[in-house]
Design brief:
single chain; about 100 residues; mainly alpha
Length: about 100
């Protein structure tokens, strides 16, 4: 549950409505909770449980470092899509590119 929440808040999984969003504060809280559980259960987990918990925490920490770059890419893609949408909604006022020069 904590892993899924962290992944959703880093834009790796869509929420229940299919939207991608970023909330790195929530991600940090989930990772911190998992690390607290790791410390509190030290010596009480079998090798398989310990390996799984360590792997989940390591992967989330790695993805947390990469999350800002993913968020920037998503924001840029959203801006490009909005420009395209504006072009089709009102072509006269939308941004455009000059393809050929009429003066030639």
């Amino acid at each position: 549950m904590l892993q899924r929440s962290a992944m959703m808040h880093m834009g790796l999984l869509p929420d229940s409505e299919g939207h991608i969003h970023f909330n790195l504060g929530e991600t940090r809280a989930a990772i911190d909770t998992l690390r607290m559980l790791q410390n509190r259960t030290k010596g009480n987990l079998d090798d398989k449980e310990k390996a799984m918990l360590n792997g989940v925490i390591s992967e989330l920490q790695l993805q947390f470092v990469n999350a800002p770059a993913r968020q920037k890419e998503l924001d840029e893609a959203t801006a490009r899509q909005e420009t395209i949408r504006e072009t089709f909604l009102d072509p006269r006022d939308a941004p455009s590119e000059v393809i050929s020069d009429d003066e030639e």
